Amino acid sequence: MAHAYIVETARTAGGRRGGALAGWHPADLGAEILNALVDRSGIDPAAIDDVIVGCVTQAGEQAFAFGRNCVLASKLPESVPAVTIDRQCGSSQQAVQFAAQAVMSGTQDVVVAMGVESMTRVPMFSNVVLHAKAGMGEGPFSDRIAARFGTKDFSQFKGAEMIARKHGFTRDDLDRFALESHRRAVAAAEAGAFDAEIVPLAVDGGLHTRDEGIRADASLEAIGSVKLLEEGGMISAANASQICDGSAGVLVVSEAALKKYNLTPKARIVNLTVTAGDPVIMLEEPLPATAKALERAGMKIDDIDLYEVNEAFAPVPLAWLKATGADPAKLNVNGGAISLGHPLGASGAKLMTTLVHALHARGKKYGLQTMCEGGGIANVTILEAV
């Protein structure tokens, strides 16, 4: 079977809502990643066969063939095509999987997989709100869907509460996990672990090179004082992912392209898995998806050296740890979305960028990444550092 290789990765430092990246048009955020991937790899930009861009809220500045607009804002030639995809929070992880499938099939040799989300300039759910104001029907969930599942309220927030209760977690469990996310992110940032990942962006006052969501002063008391999202619940803004602006991408190539363009691989893609399950509890799907991915790869959880499980809400990675029996010390070793931010469509490529760098920094071999996604879907990708 043909192999797909990651030869370069890049991401912006996360920007808080209304923060350092608020002045950046999202197409320009995407363009900076495209430029960085070309510069870092040294590849001829005209050799890129396609650009696959994950983006969740495709409205306003992130509408109208948004992926193509990222290319047009970059230094890539206009001959490079692009497409925009939406698999909710897993959009750019799916972009990587589509890119790998194109390369492994032999239909393309050089593909950029990336994601962009400006949650400041294009707020979450604004595409649904715009449709409602324009009189475009009753929303995304039809009466037939409501009859099948007994609701039209498919809420990730409610799903997170359901997972916490199902798996027996307390608010203290969630808050302690959130605190550990900040502690790991602080340690990683101070050690320079993110330096090689991040593409510096010009902002007022200089260059934006540090994830704005990291809190060096985080404490269990402060996290525990944050108001709950619903009365009697366990989820708060402090033990959930942070709203974030950012972009990230990886350059995926074939073995023929490695030789033709004299490229050095950073990782080989071992397994691509996507599954779907209950759309109501929604965020639990990484558990069975991981089991399926490991089975397909002929591996066990202990064969994996590092895990990246998106911290959409603290109960998700906690439930994943409980179900898989994985070593918590190997999970999100540089922090996660609770501390670093979750720029929706960009998070899949962002996590993969961090995972590739973390594997090399620690001299480790195998990494596994998974994301919970709206609608009860989950992607799992297994990588081998080379």
From TrEMBL:
Species of origin: Arenibacterium halophilum
Residue span, Thiolase C-terminal domain: 263-384
Superkingdom of source: Bacteria
Listed GO MF terms: acetyl-CoA C-acyltransferase activity
Keywords from the UniProt entry: Acyltransferase, Transferase
Listed EC numbers: 2.3.1.16
Protein name: Acetyl-CoA C-acyltransferase
Family (UniProt): Belongs to the thiolase-like superfamily. Thiolase family.
Entry-linked InterPro entries: Thiolase, Thiolase-like, Thiolase_C, Thiolase_CS, Thiolase_N
Record's keyword annotation contains Transferase: yes
